[in-house]
What we know:
Blueprint (H helix, E strand, L loop, with lengths): L4 E13 L5 E13 L3 E5 L6 H8 L7 E6 L2 E2 L5 H8 L2 E4 L13 H11 L6 H14 L16 H13 L5 E5 L7 H18 L2 E5 L3 H7 L2 E6 L2 E7 H6 L4 H8 L6 H6 L30 H5 L5 E2 L5 E2 L5
Parallel strand pairs: 3-8, 3-9, 6-7, 7-8
Antiparallel strand pairs: 1-2, 1-4, 4-5, 9-10, 10-12, 11-12
Amino acid sequence: MSSENILEVKNLTKHFKGPKKQIVHAVDDVSFSIGRGKTLGLVGESGCGKSTCARTVIRMYDVTAGQILLDGTDITKMKQQELKPFRKNMQMIFQDPYASLNARMTVRDIIAEPLVAHGLVKNKNEANDLVYPMLERVGLTREHAGRYAHEFSGGQRQRVGIARALVLKPELVICDEPISALDVSIQAQVINLLKDYQEEKGVSYLFIAHDLSMVRYVSDDVGVMYLGQLVEISEADEIYKKPLHPYTRGLLGSIPIANPKLARLKVKSSIEGDIPSPIDPPSGCRFHTRCPYAKPECAQSKPELKDVGGGHRVACHLY
């Protein structure tokens, strides 16, 4: 029996060994779920742990602690060989279209590689029957199949990366900032491509991005990360209309407005200072060193991520 959620992440923790036997707290005690055919947007500053969280979820990194359930099955401690049947059902679109494609392989071979790896095709003709329609699905043509990655623009390379991820027809796709390296005009095309495919196939996305406006457009729910921890999560419209955590307010306050008059009227909750080191994160609430509302309790005890109504969860001592 299939689970209501395609993905459930429970208390996920990922630490790395730093210099002089220090511990890098990349991801700490993060929990969320993604429903079938839904999109969870994950936002936060650079270095907050978004990409590490995504790569740990897809098991590119081993888990330090916590649990990952894919379609109801615990994949947390599985070895790579055990994971192989589950790989087909979860794929990743990488941030850098220049580095994520093999320069020595043609586009056709790049997209066909996962089909061959999972034994879904027996020969080149069978592979072509799946590769060519997928190329056309992402806005390329059969003529592009014989070319190499260096012959394409950034937007075209990202389409190849998307085709490679979608050709296996996965139920979960992790999009690790798939549009940040692209021009604005190309960003809209790629986002619309992903949304159209989701509506057609019912695929679920974990969408990581810096562009908060774009995250609102593509996401059903939005989670906000700060220094390896999830500080707020709610439905997208709710979190943009009624942000609760001071960090979330600061992020939303940084979104530029094209109209100068409205921009002057907008109240900005600025975030001062730099993000602390994940090797030695602050005690209690990790945001208290930059928070304008910090009180002594914030430095002493870690706030729990609790529901304040309607599924809106926030980790802050103000609530």
